[in-house]
Amino acid sequence: MSTVPTAPTRRPRPTIGILAGWQAYEGTTPNWFLEALLLGVMEAGRTLDCDLLLSCGVGPGIADPRAVRPAWPEVLPDGDFVPVGSWNTDGLVVISPLRTIARRGYVRRLQDEGHPVVYIGEGDGRPAVVADSFVGIRQALLHLREHGHREVVYVGGDPLDDGDSRTRLEAFHAVAGELGLDHGESCTEPGFHSEPGGYAAMKALLERGCRFTAVLASNDNSALGAMRALVESGRRVPDDVAVVGFDDQPWAAGHIPPLTTIRYPLGDAGKRAVELLLEMIQEGSLRSDEVRVPTRLVGRRSCGCLPREGARRAGSIPAPDGAVAAPGAEGPRSGTVRAMTDALGVGGSSLAAPDTERLCAGLFAGFETSLAAGKATAFEHSLLELVRELEESGDPAHLWQTALSVLRAGLLDTRGAAGLAGWAEDLLHLGRVVLSESAERQGGRQRLLDSEYEDKVSELSVRLLSVHEETELPAVLGEHAPALGIHPTLLALYEPAGDDPVASCRILLSGPGGAPEEPTAPEPRETTRALTFDRLFPESGPRCQLVLPLIHKGRSPGFVAFATDTLDPCAAVARQLAVALESVRLQAAVRALTLRDDLTGLYNRRFFESELKRETERSRRFRHDVALVMLDLDHFKAYNDSFGHRAGDDALRRVAERIVSSTHRKLDAIVRYGGEEFAILLAETDLDGARQVAERFREAIEGCTDFLRPLTVSAGVAALHGEGCDGERLVLDADRALYQAKKEGRNRVCLAPPSS
Fold first, then answer.
1. N or C: which terminus of the chain has fewer CB atoms within 10 Å of its end residue's CB?
2. Topology of domain 129-268+276-303, per CATH?
3. What confidence category does residue 606 fall into, taking pLDDT thresholds of 50, 70 and 90?
4. How confident is the model at residue 500, as a pLDDT?
């Protein structure tokens, strides 16, 4: 069903929505590519003072590389609806590839109607922020040729992707032809940007009998799959076959062998997309810009690069002549510091560039001072300051081994091998030991944090699965989710209307505190495509909310939103919520079988006792009125004796139908109390209101012509309020009033005396 976008209301800060053409989670694990982009988007939201709504799809896993299931603001067969669209955002960042005509059409309609949109990736539209894929592919092929390779095969992306997959494939053929490398169609195979896809692609290339000494993959995932297939075939990497990937995933440096790759700074792409979109919103203009994000080769062992050579390539280390400059001087020192900073950025350091440069300069200055003084004090001080900041920030200490390698390489260029003999090598060794110890501490701390995290997730899962009512879920979430770094702000279940399965939604939780606004009030309902998140954003500053579908057994009955700065636990909690909701539904179905009267379909005496206890407790707690109507069919034994029990049963069913059709509120509990007697428990209703309800029931039965002869009812009404509300007393008062109605001639309503 198509959505007609509406203009968003004016907000204190711009609200930016994020839509992606595929799922943000594979099972419960964040898709690394989207996670890196979204973390960049989140950082931009914090620094640029805007609120973020991230639409995050949850896929089944990574077994099928072609499986794509995004969260989307339209109801589509290959996605899950979530309410993040034009009606509640000031602009949208759309992450390509969108893959289908329906998704492309939706976004283009928004653009035609003037809603600001910026794409990340090629192939779906402009304005766009894109990786400089052509330059990246050229760098990779030039590097492989430098290693002596002339026969290179290519593991591509998704044939349905007209963006990065197509651009990188075209770049491979163009550059390979320019460099005189083999590049025919038989040299390429789609890998769908996934490990299983890369594995299958390499198996196909091997079975085809392709001759090659190197593999270039369209991304790191497919490179990993290709390496697995190569190892299974008896080929060694890099001894027999060199492998180069694209994107520089977090695990690329830690793989065995470490993966040479083209680094695409995804966080920078996410930040630039938000910047561009905010410029459009503030200017009120539409654009067709294309911003290219630079890519860069990171040389590692999988292509044959040795560590020192890889460090040189990563840092672009200059080789100036002359001795090492004195502290504070320009020249070789500044060049080496820049090279160290650059290498750490390429290596994946999460520190801001100015902080990295400051720490590198301190490391270099401490090394120079200790080298000149013959004492390790200055270098030790700079190392301790470095590891303190690394351990506080969580930036991996092992990455700084690269900085030491760059420092050593810079000294070799300026002083020669003789200048690094003895004391200088001892200092560098000290640096490596200190960094190794810091990395070991970080690893131990991370293992402890991971264990605590798993315990918290397990505790939340157990608590969610122990609830018996939907109304218990908000309290459980509010108690346990914040310990995982996520704060539930909205939990809702869809309700259909006509052919629209998500026309409205029933709100179970609404508010940053993780609890219903009015726990005792009826659950609010809102039109889904008019739902906004504005009041859930704090006034004090910008906030990011992730919106995920609740999915269980391929069905999405609703969604949940979390205020958070992390992706990790959200899908796991959303899945547990979906399972808990299904469990509650099944429990309710089982209870319904035991709490319903077989003959009339009304609730039975057992249900009445439970509901009576709940409503009287609420009355005492919140000082609400609660009323009870007791109905009894007049002279029903004579009716049974005249027409038989089957006719009597049919009459009871018709009486039940009349009572139900005369009820104006769904929350009223209608019960077959026993035999021909019925009870209607009325929450938040005083004595006069209950009398009117009883008269309506009496008139409905008296006016019914469906019986074999006219039937009437007598009714007794009682009501209690506040501290004096007692279930047994309420039943006793209503029963006495019913007896009075019988005594006074039947077919009438009598009231119990008001409670004192």
1. C
2. Rossmann fold (3.40.50)
3. confident
4. 93
Residue type, 57: G
Q: Show contacts of 469-472: CB within 8 Å, 24+ apart.
A: 469/584, 470/508, 470/581, 470/584, 471/508, 471/516, 471/519
What does pLDDT average to over the chain?
86
- Coil, helix or strand for 123? coil
pLDDT in tens, 252-309: 877 888 899 999 989 999 999 999 999 999 988 888 889 999 999 988 889 988 755 4
In the structure encoding, which two tokens stand for residue 126, read together? 């402009």
| Structure-block tokens of residue 538 | 């704090």
Query: Domain map of the chain by residue range?
Result: 15-115+470-589, 129-268+276-303, 311-445, 605-751
Catalytic residue annotation: 676
Span between the terminal Cα atoms of the chain, in Å: 57
d(CA 458, CA 279): 44
Alpha helix stretches (DSSP H) within 703-752? 727-743
Q: What pTM value is reported for the model?
A: 0.73
Confidence of residue 450 (pLDDT cuts 50, 70, 90): confident
Whether the bond into 238 is cis, omega within 30 of 0: yes
Tokens of 345: 């950025």
Within 13 A of 140's CA, how many CA atoms are on the CB side? 38
d(CA 597, CA 179): 82
Element (H, E) at 388: helix 377-393
Amino acid occupying residue 177: G
DSSP state of 511: S
Contact call for residues 543 and 51 (beta carbons, < 8 A):
yes
More confident: 538 or 353: 353
Rg of the Cα atoms in the chain: 35
DSSP state of 286: -
Cis peptide before 127 (omega within 30 of 0): yes
Between helices 727-743 and 605-622, what is the axis angle to 10°? 110
Chain-centre distance of CA 416, in angstroms?
53
Of 259, 262, 227, nearest to 247 (Cα)?
262
How far from 243 is each of 220, 232, 609, 626, CA to CA, in Å?
Answer: 10, 15, 72, 75
d(CA 356, CA 338): 10
**Run of H or E residues at 619:** helix 605-622
**CATH number of this structure's domain 605-751, picked from the four choices 3.40.120.10, 3.30.70.1530, 3.30.70.270, 3.40.640.10:** 3.30.70.270
